[in-house]
Write a structure and sequence with these properties.
heterodimer; A: mainly alpha; Helix Hairpins; 3 helices; about 75% helix; about 0% strand; B: mainly alpha; Four Helix Bundle (Hemerythrin (Met), subunit A); 2 domains
């Protein structure tokens, strides 16, 4: 039987790998953003698991880190999806394989 | 004796496996499904599973923040972006990029390294800890005292991101190009 902390860390590693695979293999820019969000969430799960089973949970360090990370990830998602919409309006595609120029 | 205790432990483990299966299955479906709207729905499921894992780890505040921010806001943003870009129409070339094999190999390698480290470190990790009693009062005190500078920086960041996202996604006016 897997011990609790190892179980949580294993789930986080699995979700991180799935997110990485999604970000690296999909064509659509929105799916790449989804993969990045999954990776950020896996990191948050690690932070909270280590906070829960760490030596000083009353200091709230890990949980505070996770809460700030959630806020930063929300900002990242808003800006990223805004960029995708802007690029779509310009290039009429969200296919990353076709977005190979910096020039408009 | 000790039978009820063992039964309780087993129930805890079963609940953990169910929630983990929800989170991992949702993540897999979000990455693998062809239709992007279905991907967004599966992503919501994965976020919900992660929020439940946070709640199981006695991090109630982070769990509810996760539900509010991810299940509530980010999922809706993703759905809006999918509908605005008409990305739900399937591309002819398939949904995976030309170099998908390399990406899959990199992800598998990362998971192998993480899993190997976990198996190596597993016995040394502390696994029994009393559930920390965290009240919202304590979280508020920590945010206003120890973490007041990060809080202010996050406030500035969110304002900048709000303005930046609106400006980036705003229609370009005729003649400005």
């Amino acid at each position: 039987m897997a011990t609790p902390l190892t179980g949580y860390l294993l789930v986080a590693a699995l979700i991180f790998a799935i997110g990485l695979a999604g970000a690296l293999t999909r064509r659509n820019a929105i799916l790449v953003l989804i993969g990045i969000e999954l990776m950020l969430n896996a990191a948050n799960l690690n932070l909270i698991a280590f906070w829960r089973y760490g030596p000083h949970p009353e200091l709230l360090t890990g949980m505070m880190f996770a809460i700030f990370s959630i806020a930063v990830a929300a900002a990242e998602a808003a800006v990223g999806l805004g960029l995708v919409i802007s690029i779509y309006r310009h290039a009429k595609t969200t296919d990353l394989d076709q977005m190979n120029r910096m020039k408009g | 004796m000790g039978h009820p205790a063992r039964k309780g432990r087993l129930a805890v483990e079963v609940v953990f496996y169910l929630i983990s299966a929800l989170a991992v299955g949702g993540a897999l479906a979000a990455v693998l499904l062809k239709n992007l709207v279905h991907c967004a729905l599966a992503l919501t499921l994965a976020f919900l599973g992660l929020a439940l894992l946070f709640l199981r780890l006695d991090a109630q505040f982070a769990g509810f923040a996760q539900i509010l921010v991810y299940v509530g806001a980010v999922a809706i943003l993703v759905v809006f972006a999918i509908l605005l870009t008409r990305a739900s129409e399937l591309p002819k070339e398939g949904v995976f990029s030309k170099t998908w094999l390399v990406g899959l190999a990199i992800a598998a390698a990362v998971f192998a390294v993480l899993g190997w480290v976990l198996l190596q470190a597993g016995p040394g990790l502390s696994n029994e800890a009393a559930a920390p009693q965290v009240t919202v009062n304590q979280i508020g005190q920590a945010l206003m005292r120890r973490y007041v500078l990060p809080l202010e920086i996050v406030a500035v960041l969110l304002t900048a991101a709000l303005l930046g996202a609106v400006i980036v996604a705003m229609h370009e006016k005729e003649g400005t190009k």
